[in-house]
């Protein structure tokens, strides 16, 4: 087993000048913090590990290396997380001599945590660190779905050195990668190369524009429910709510919306790693962005503490927990099968993969209603096409 003490510096941040909450009600009260006097040990008893990666190299957003500690200062001012999920703050990862050393070290850490069934929450740093997530999941042969909440699809049609705006190139060019499916929530058309959008559309990626998300944000929950790795770029938030990043946009999500998306990620059945990237305190105003980043993390952890592992239970004998609906749609050989949870009111589509084995794809109540109107839901079509490919 890897000794994570070799990879991390202890947490060292100044206490707040003024505390609104009593120490018993504060965030640090029900978590374990790696400090100089409390080295890392017995990690197996923890469910969630927070880790800062203060490295802004290979990014125009170089000041993002200051993000982890500034976000922590705001996070530790918030209230404690409800529930009994045991959380540890591992501290900040030691920076590698080169950026590739940092990537390799982070991949080692993520691999160790995932193998020990400890959920990693990464505080970046820039999104140039994302290939480490690919390495960790690929080493474990996990065919994974990556979801980015980002105004840009971080891929370049040109040959360029790897950076935070083209990390998808690195993943797609890695022949050992087990990357399977890409989802983007909140992309802004005018910030993206049309050729890149077309490329990912042809790959059957699910790309949801900012306007469509904001019209019905609850429809993103099934997308995040089927996600293995969720990457949040703070520039997905409009500049008025989060000025502290290198390339903010006047348009984007409001603070409340990005926190709701984060909570959806937290309650996801399949999620294996979560990362928040590209907060740059050098451009911040009165800790506005680091404060929002802390709240994004808080909502993720709060959602995680309320998680219901339902997808693996559908196939088992849970007769009272789920209801199956068969819907006949013209031009389809077989009925469409929808499954609803009586516990959470969440929905899935049942797809037959092979004899005696079914695949359950998260969907919404609207998908079920669409099938009842004799229309084939887009999620069903996309899932079938991915299965065929």
Description:
With 389 residues, the protein is an alpha/beta fold. It folds into two domains: 4-305, Arginase, Chain A; 311-388, no CATH class. It is 29% helix and 21% strand. The chain has helices at residues 67-75, 99-115, 130-139, 167-172, 194-202, 210-215, 221-225, 255-266, 288-305, 365-372, 378-388; strands at 8-9, 31-33, 48-53, 87-93, 119-124, 144-149, 179-187, 206-209, 229-233, 273-277, 322-327, 336-341, 347-354, 357-363. Strands 1, 2, 3, 4, 5, 6, 7, 8, 9 and 10 form a ten-stranded mixed beta sheet that branches. Helix 1 (67-75) crosses helix 9 (288-305), helix 2 (99-115) crosses helix 3 and helix 8 (255-266) packs parallel to helix 9. It is globular and about 65 Å long.
CATH architectural group of the largest domain:
3-Layer(aba) Sandwich
Q: What is the domain total for the residues?
A: 2
Which consecutive residue ranges, at least 5 long each, have pLDDT under 50? none
Tell me the overall shape: globular
| Number of helical regions | 11
According to CATH, what is the class of the largest domain? Alpha Beta
Beta fraction = 15-25%
Quickly give the structural class.
Answer: alpha/beta
Radius of gyration: 21 Å
CATH topology of the largest domain: Arginase, Chain A
Q: H/E series, N to C? A: EEEHEHEHEHEHEHHEHEHEEEEHH
């Amino acid at each position: 087993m890897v000794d994570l003490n070799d990879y991390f510096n202890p947490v060292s941040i100044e206490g707040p000048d003024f505390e609104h909450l009593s120490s018993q009600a504060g965030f640090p009260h029900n978590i374990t913090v790696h400090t100089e006097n409390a080295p890392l040990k017995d990690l197996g008893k923890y469910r969630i590990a927070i880790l800062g990666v203060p490295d802004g190299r290979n990014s125009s957003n170089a000041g993002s290396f200051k993000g982890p500690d500034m976000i922590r200062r705001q996070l530790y001012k918030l209230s404690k997380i409800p529930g009994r999920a045991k959380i540890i703050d591992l501290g900040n990862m030691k920076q590698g001599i080169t950026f590739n050393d940092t990537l390799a070290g982070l991949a080692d850490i993520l691999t160790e945590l995932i193998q020990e069934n400890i959920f990693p929450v990464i505080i970046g740093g820039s999104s140039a660190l994302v290939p480490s997530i690919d390495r960790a999941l690929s080493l474990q042969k996990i065919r994974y779905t990556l979801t980015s909440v980002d105004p840009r699809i971080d891929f370049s049609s040109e040959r360029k050195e790897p950076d935070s705006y083209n990390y998808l190139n690195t993943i797609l060019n890695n022949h050992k990668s087990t990357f399977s499916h890409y989802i983007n929530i909140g992309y802004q058309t005018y910030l993206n190369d049309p050729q890149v959008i077309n490329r990912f559309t042809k790959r059957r990626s699910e790309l949801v524009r900012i306007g469509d998300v904001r019209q019905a944000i609850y429809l993103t929950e099934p997308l995040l429910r089927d996600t293995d790795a969720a990457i949040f770029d703070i520039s997905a938030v409009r500049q008025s709510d989060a000025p502290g990043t290198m390339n903010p946009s006047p348009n984007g999500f409001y603070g409340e919306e990005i926190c709701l998306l984060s909570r959806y990620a937290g309650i996801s059945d399949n999620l294996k790693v979560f990362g928040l990237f590209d907060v740059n305190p050098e451009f911040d105003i009165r800790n506005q962005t680091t404060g929002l980043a802390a709240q994004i993390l808080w909502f993720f952890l709060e959602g995680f503490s309320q998680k219901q592992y339902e997808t693996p239970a559908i196939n088992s004998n849970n007769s009272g927990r789920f209801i199956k609906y068969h819907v006949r749609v013209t031009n389809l050989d077989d009925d469409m099968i929808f499954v609803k949870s009586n516990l959470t009111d969440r929905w899935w589509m049942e797809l037959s993969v092979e004899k005696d084995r079914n695949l359950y794809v998260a969907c919404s109540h609207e998908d079920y209603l669409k099938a009842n109107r004799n229309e084939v839901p887009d999620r069903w079509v996309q899932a079938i096409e991915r299965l065929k490919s």
